[in-house]
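re: the backbone from monday

yeah here it is again, tokenized this time
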């Protein structure tokens, strides 16, 4: 079953989400109309009086993908996975910096450097990190308008780095009980990409192994731990890694370097967690925070598969969960285009210009449209993202690119909002 359908009353106030079958009946009987395509939302045509049940919005922030889930009681009625574009922003900034550098070197070679004349605010974040906070907050505010959300639960600590460095740390309640060790294992699973460090096998149970054997003085520090399958772990035993991989110098070099490599994604999550928490409090709803170790513990106890949106559903105190949706809404941040009026080649020289006006015949590039062509060589129905042309002849990216579709055949399904969607 796909996600539940959001419903608004005539005053655009959120009601209880309904199952897709009931939504089809309301549309067929003319009692409701489509208010929004993604996420699919209906608006009723007649006024109703109802007291909706409260819904908890759960968030599992990630470096590349953030999981979102709506839980009503013990029922998961909506799931989404929001893919960020932090790496694309970083690449764009680096490209712009290099082009500016070349241009300054050509035209203003002797100008005094001004790279230290800008002040940063106290809570400044790099643009690629700030983007993760802003896109997550955008969808939180959007869902608050579509569903009767009463509270928010955020996974605040993905990796508890002090506990990772010192597994014997005390004073935190969850680390003294059945959660002890979940933080370390989750950290290692991400660091070693859920593969055996020695043979590369995956999708099997993995064991924590000491790179420098504990029997020979090796510590429990995270830089001395890796993941190994049972076969490799048994074969290695108490041998030094140099002795065990004497005939495999390339693997030895990779393991030694990767063991000391910091986890970039964990650092990104830790950098943005408090910024996101403070922004969530501005919504006025109660915000609860929990550890990532508890999330994994809940998912393991309930025997659920590991996906971002299911991780989000397992955030916080969970006794049992009934998954009523199996197809999360896949959301990918694409940005809103660019304000650059002049495109450049790889050397920074002007190569082409873009039109001054974004809208052509009421459409703009990025809109999702439906084109019903009734004559000519391209008779058929096409649904996809449109690329407008000033001539009025558009390109539509459906299952494949279709060129030369007149605007007269097009109707808008979903306005461009900086995201692409898939079920």
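seq for it, each position gets an aa:
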């Amino acid at each position: 079953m796909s996600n539940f359908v959001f419903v608004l009353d005539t005053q655009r106030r959120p009601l209880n989400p309904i199952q897709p079958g009931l939504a089809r009946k309301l549309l067929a009987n003319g009692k409701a109309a489509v208010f929004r395509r993604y996420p699919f939302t209906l608006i009723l045509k007649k006024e109703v009086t109802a007291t909706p049940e409260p819904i908890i919005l759960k968030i599992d922030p990630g470096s590349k993908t953030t999981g979102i889930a709506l839980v009503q009681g013990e029922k998961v009625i909506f799931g989404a996975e929001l893919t960020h574009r932090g790496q694309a922003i970083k690449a764009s900034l680096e490209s712009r910096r290099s082009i500016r550098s070349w241009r300054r070197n050509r035209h203003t070679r002797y100008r005094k450097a001004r790279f230290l004349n800008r002040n940063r605010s106290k809570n400044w974040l790099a643009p690629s990190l700030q983007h993760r906070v802003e896109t997550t907050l955008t969808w939180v505010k959007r869902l608050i308008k579509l569903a009767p959300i009463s509270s928010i639960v955020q996974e605040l600590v993905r990796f508890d780095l002090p506990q990772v460095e010192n597994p014997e740390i005390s004073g935190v309640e969850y680390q003294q009980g059945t959660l002890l060790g979940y933080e370390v294992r989750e950290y290692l699973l991400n660091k070693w990409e859920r593969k055996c460090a020695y043979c590369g096998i995956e999708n099997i149970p993995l064991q924590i192994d000491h790179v420098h054997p504990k029997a020979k003085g090796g510590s429990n520090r995270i830089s001395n731990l890796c993941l190994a399958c049972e076969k490799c772990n048994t074969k290695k035993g108490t041998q030094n890694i140099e002795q065990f991989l004497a005939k495999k110098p390339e693997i030895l070099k990779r393991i030694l370097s990767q063991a000391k490599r910091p986890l970039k994604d964990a650092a990104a999550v830790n950098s943005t967690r408090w910024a996101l928490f403070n922004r969530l409090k501005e919504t006025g709803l109660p915000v609860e925070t929990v550890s990532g170790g508890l999330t994994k513990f809940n998912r393991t106890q309930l025997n659920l598969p590991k996906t971002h949106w299911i991780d989000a559903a397992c955030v916080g105190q969970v006794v049992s969960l009934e998954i009523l949706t199996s197809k999360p809404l896949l959301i990918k941040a694409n940005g809103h285009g660019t304000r650059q009026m002049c495109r450049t080649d790889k050397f920074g020289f002007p190569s082409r210009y873009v039109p001054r006006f974004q809208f052509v015949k009421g459409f703009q590039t990025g809109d999702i449209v439906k084109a019903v062509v009734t004559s000519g060589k391209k008779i058929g129905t096409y649904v996809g993202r449109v690329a407008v042309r000033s001539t009025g002849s558009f390109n539509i990216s459906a299952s494949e690119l279709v060129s030369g579709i007149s605007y007269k055949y097009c109707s808008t399904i979903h306005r461009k909002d900086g995201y692409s969607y898939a079920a």
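The first strand starts at residue 6 and ends at 8. Confidence is low (pLDDT under 50) at residues 165-179.
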